[in-house]
């Protein structure tokens, strides 16, 4: 909730991500032996708390301070809007991961959750919980723990919220504006700060279990927290542990009736029948170059063309593909491998998991000691292990790109005879269902130690407060791609020839010497698992990250003006980031096998080793000067801040901010606020040093008359010469808390953010199109391609492989106008309304309170300017195929008394489109171009989700002891997601958008909390 009347300070204190903690008891003993720690011993006077502050509960030492500035000052209302999620709201939401609570704030868009990215095999992002403000990316949203940086989840940045000590989180502050001057790099979109309870005494716990209405997605969560004081209250120790489990949710085709195989079929530019749309969104779309067993898609023998569309089923049985509608151009030639209707056996969209299987253990410990009234020291330790596993897609699919000879002994005799001689060949596609599905297994272990202190001293008649810490963070990450196939060894195994005495053998003599056993792809249930071991295995990447960070800051009021004391904060910080990566040898070497290539041998995965490091030294200063104060003039405060950062990788850079708040005397409770800032995101380890990853993707290859849907490798290269991104943010708003209606808070804020020199890559398809349209050598030289024999598409639509690799390289800033995403511009409005009322003030003898809270974000524009010649500026606001809906709304109503409470929550986003640049038409369509594409149906509806939750206090005492049972039903009406047809050569899309829509359905949670 926007926190307009509280001081805008974030106290830099404890964080602790830990070390080996297989047994919580042993870790606790180790912590006591190693560390000393502190909570804030220095309470400050603060303005009366708003409802959000009351909900948040007291901070350390009884103070309520909110992230947004480095200044500590009574009564200061921050110019930067801040949303607060307090402990009471966290408990009422009854989620197994606090990430789910925070992510419901409308200003957050595009966050990565366990239900997103489940079809990815190479990125290693599966099962993460990373926050994304304004849709600008997790690496442009700075996440803090007690005001301290936390090591990233990988080299790309972003922080996994699930690794935090959830049992001790007291509140969460979300600063929805640029804050680099206060907190440094990555705070382009804002800051999310998780505040822990440093003074907890007693024992408390939380246990919950749940599942979906379909009987899957079973989850269990157990939290236990304990704390106590010692040494007559001068010391304090606390520890918190958690175990969480989620069984995941299988593919949508298995138990979700909303799945209908929605995809987007696209004609090549210039080959669209007159009056028809370029893009066709439709259900029941599948690829006729694939079949569960195998399908013949082409033949080198013209006399054998009748074999095309022959499929191989159970045990090698033969059938004929029933083709649906296939797009053809004006000449009658097929122009796409996708069909609507007909046999749908080749659709893999219903296979990939909807939610990731997860197992999480965390431990956090903290010990503090007040050596005097002026010095408090502390140490923390945080350990987290997160294991995730999900099915990304069904085995190794080969869409019409395999070649087999007619004398292959696994072919039925009739097919072999009709095929031709031993020198004749068939082109075949297969889903390889006899091979195991490709599973993505991620194991992340985070260790974090923090040593710090805070205190106060007097200098030249001024009381100064100091705060400092040093933290070491380690993250050990393993990404296993289980069930991958080595392409050349697979090709050798399926290339079978008759052997002596009626045996079958591999054609390649080198493969024979390696133990190659022929593998049968002609049917289902025919593949020999022992033969598959020759070409199957696990592609893996191991990443070791280290972060060292130190900070020392000071706060004081050295002098006063006519309007009051001037507050000053200043300090310095140092941070070093480093990583190294190891990969399986077959990903990046020939792997001591003459049949393999120099790199990229797996079907997907293909990781590469790399390493790198950088450091940054920073100094900052911030001042708050009251300029007006009085009944006639009103209250006017000026907040200025600046930071200089020197990066070893890119040099020095300045950030700054200037903010004002003004409370006019005419309308009590009214306050205006505004801020302007210059913010940065420095290139991270992945941008600078990461070796090329090689994910598999689909593009339309455009070379001469060849226009085919093809699968390509799409490596993305790092660039050590990159410079920081720079953004400008402007915000202006009004806050109203009227005296005539106590308990009401209303705020409206306008924001505008412009980001230039953005680090990124253009997409593979865009690179392909730009090369074909402009001939730009910078782009075309990055595209390596080859053609099969004949070099042209088959009249029946079977494509060749004109593209083997499309490479995107993010250049230095000087080259950003050529191939980088040059600029981003977004603006919009944030609205918040909150009201709390005691019912006894309205009705005598009616107990309890009612509260209302509404948060809304209206994204007016979100424009991407690629900075490329002839390329348009695109606006993705309202594209519900992404994450930026025009309107996002979260409203909660709660009734609470001493015995029970009940909360109803409505989550809503507005309707939108697939793509704002599309022109919708079913007939009489205009001629489509690359920048003015047409589509038959561009609409994507909005969605309203209802959640209910309740708590019953079995007992609750004045001293805080309690035992409570609770429940939660998410997506009460079991609303299904809208179709989100996507385009490309990959058959694995499930045809919806889990980033915006709920794909899991109705979910139940029951649980109990206790505090002793």
UniProtKB/TrEMBL annotation:
Localization of this protein: Cell outer membrane
- Pfam families tied to this protein: Plug, TonB_dep_Rec_b-barrel
Please indicate which superkingdom the organism of origin belongs to.
Answer: Bacteria
Topological relation to the membrane, as annotated: Multi-pass membrane protein
Give the TonB-dependent receptor plug domain ranges: 77-191
Q: Which residues form the signal peptide?
A: 1-43
Q: Which UniProt keywords apply?
A: Cell outer membrane, Membrane, Receptor, Signal, TonB box, Transmembrane, Transmembrane beta strand, Transport
- Location of the TonB-dependent receptor-like beta-barrel domain: 470-972
UniProt xrefs under PANTHER family: PTHR47234, SECRETIN_TONB SHORT N-TERMINAL DOMAIN-CONTAINING PROTEIN (PTHR47234:SF3)
UniProt lists the family membership as follows: Belongs to the TonB-dependent receptor family.
What protein name applies here? TonB-dependent receptor
**What is the originating organism of this protein?**
Sphingomonas quercus
């Amino acid at each position: 909730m926007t926190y307009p009347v509280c001081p805008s300070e974030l106290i830099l204190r404890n964080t602790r991500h830990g070390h080996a903690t297989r047994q919580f008891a042993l870790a606790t003993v180790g912590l006591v032996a190693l560390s000393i720690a502190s909570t804030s011993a220095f309470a400050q006077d603060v303005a009366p708390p708003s409802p959000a502050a009351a909900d948040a509960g007291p901070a350390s030492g009884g103070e309520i301070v909110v992230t947004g500035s480095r200044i500590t000052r009574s009564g200061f209302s921050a110019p930067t809007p801040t949303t607060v999620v307090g402990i009471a709201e966290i408990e009422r939401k009854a989620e197994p991961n606090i990430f789910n609570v925070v992510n419901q704030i409308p200003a957050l868009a595009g966050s990565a959750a366990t239900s997103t990215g489940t079809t990815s095999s190479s990125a290693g992002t599966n099962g993460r919980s990373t926050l994304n403000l304004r849709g600008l990316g997790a690496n442009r949203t700075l996440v803090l723990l007690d005001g301290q940086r936390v090591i990233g989840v990988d080299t790309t940045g972003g922080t996994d919220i699930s690794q935090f000590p959830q049992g001790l989180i007291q509140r969460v502050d979300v600063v929805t504006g640029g804050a680099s001057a206060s907190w440094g790099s990555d705070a382009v979109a804002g800051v999310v700060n998780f505040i822990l309870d440093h003074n907890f005494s007693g024992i408390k716990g939380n246990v919950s279990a749940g599942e979906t209405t379909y009987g899957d997605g079973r989850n269990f969560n157990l939290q236990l927290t304990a704390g106590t004081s010692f040494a007559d209250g001068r010391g304090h120790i606390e520890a918190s542990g958690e175990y969480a489990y989620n069984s995941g949710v299988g593919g949508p085709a298995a138990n979700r009736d909303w799945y209908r195989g929605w995809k987007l079929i696209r004609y090549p530019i210039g080959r669209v029948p007159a009056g028809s749309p370029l893009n066709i969104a439709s259900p029941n779309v599948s690829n006729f170059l694939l079949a569960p067993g195998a399908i013949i898609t082409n033949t080198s023998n013209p006399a054998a063309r009748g074999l095309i569309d022959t499929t191989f089923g159970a045990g090698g049985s033969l059938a004929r593909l029933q083709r649906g509608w296939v797009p053809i151009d004006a000449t009658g030639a097929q122009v796409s491998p996708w069909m609507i209707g007909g046999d749908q056996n080749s659709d893999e969209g219903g296979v990939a998991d909807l939610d990731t299987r997860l197992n999480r253990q965390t431990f956090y410990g903290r010990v503090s000691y007040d050596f005097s009234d002026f010095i408090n020291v502390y140490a923390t330790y945080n350990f987290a292990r997160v294991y995730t596993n999900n099915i990304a897609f069904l085995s190794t699919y080969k869409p019409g790109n395999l070649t087999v000879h007619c004398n292959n002994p696994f072919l039925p005799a009739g097919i072999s005879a009709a095929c031709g001689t031993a020198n004749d060949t068939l082109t075949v596609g297969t889903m390889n269902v006899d091979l195991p599905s490709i599973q993505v297994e991620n194991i992340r272990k985070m260790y974090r130690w923090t040593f710090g202190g805070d205190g106060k001293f007097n200098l030249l008649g001024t009381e100064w407060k100091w705060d400092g810490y040093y933290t070491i963070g380690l993250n050990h990450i393993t990404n296993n791609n289980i069930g991958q196939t080595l392409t050349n060894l697979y090709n050798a195994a399926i290339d079978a020839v008759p052997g002596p005495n009626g045996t079958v053998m591999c054609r390649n003599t080198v493969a024979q010497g390696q133990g190659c056993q022929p593998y049968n792809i002609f049917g289902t249930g025919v593949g020999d698992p022992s033969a598959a071991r020759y070409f199957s295995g696990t592609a893996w990447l191991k990443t070791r990250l280290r972060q060292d960070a130190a900070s020392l800051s000071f706060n004081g009021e050295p002098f006063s003006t006519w309007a009051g004391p001037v507050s000053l904060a200043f300090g310095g910080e140092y941070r070093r980031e480093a990583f190294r990566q190891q990969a399986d040898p077959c990903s990046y070497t020939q792997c001591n096998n003459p049949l393999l290539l120099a790199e990229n041998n797996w079907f997907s995965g293909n990781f590469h080793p790399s390493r790198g490091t950088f450091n940054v030294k920073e100094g900052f200063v911030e001042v708050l000067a009251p300029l007006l104060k009085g009944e006639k003039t009103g209250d006017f405060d000026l907040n200025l801040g600046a930071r200089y950062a020197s990066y070893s990788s890119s040099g020095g850079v300045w950030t700054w901010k200037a903010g004002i708040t003004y409370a006019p005397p005419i309308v009590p409770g009214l306050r205006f606020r505004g801020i302007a800032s210059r913010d940065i995101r420095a290139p991270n380890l992945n941008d600078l040093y990461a070796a090329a990853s090689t994910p598999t993707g689909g593009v339309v290859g455009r070379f001469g008359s060849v226009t085919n849907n093809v699968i390509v490798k799409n490596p993305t290269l790092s660039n050590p010469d990159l410079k920081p991104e720079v953004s400008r943010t402007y915000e202006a708003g009004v806050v109203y808390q009227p005296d005539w209606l106590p308990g009401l808070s209303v705020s409206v804020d306008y924001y505008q953010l412009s980001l230039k020199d953005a680090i990124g890559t253009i997409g593979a398809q865009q690179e392909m199109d730009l090369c074909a349209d402009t001939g730009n050598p910078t782009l075309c030289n990055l595209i390596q391609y080859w053609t099969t024999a004949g070099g042209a598409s088959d009249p029946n639509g079977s494509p060749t492989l004109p593209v083997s690799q499309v490479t995107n390289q993010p250049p230095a800033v000087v080259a950003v106008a050529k191939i980088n995403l040059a600029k981003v511009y977004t603006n919009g409005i944030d609205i918040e309304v909150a009201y709390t009322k005691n019912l006894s003030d309205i009705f005598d003898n009616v107990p309890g309170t009612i509260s209302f809270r509404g948060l809304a974000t209206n994204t007016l524009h979100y424009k991407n300017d690629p900075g490329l010649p002839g390329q348009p500026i695109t606006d993705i606001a309202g594209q519900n195929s992404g994450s930026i809906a025009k309107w996002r709304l979260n409203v909660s109503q709660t009734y609470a008394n001493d015995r029970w409470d009940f909360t109803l929550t409505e989550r809503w986003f507005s309707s939108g489109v697939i793509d704002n640049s599309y022109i919708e038409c079913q007939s009489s369509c205009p001629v489509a171009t690359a920048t003015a594409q047409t589509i038959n149906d561009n609409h994507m509806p909005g969605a309203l989700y209802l959640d209910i939750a309740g708590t019953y206090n079995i007992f609750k005492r004045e001293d805080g002891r309690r035992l409570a049972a609770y429940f939660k039903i998410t997506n009460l009406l079991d609303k299904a997601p809208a179709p989100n047809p996507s385009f490309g050569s990959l058959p694995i899309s499930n045809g919806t958008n889990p980033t915006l829509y709920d794909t899991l359905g109705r979910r139940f949670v029951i649980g109990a909390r206790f505090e002793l």
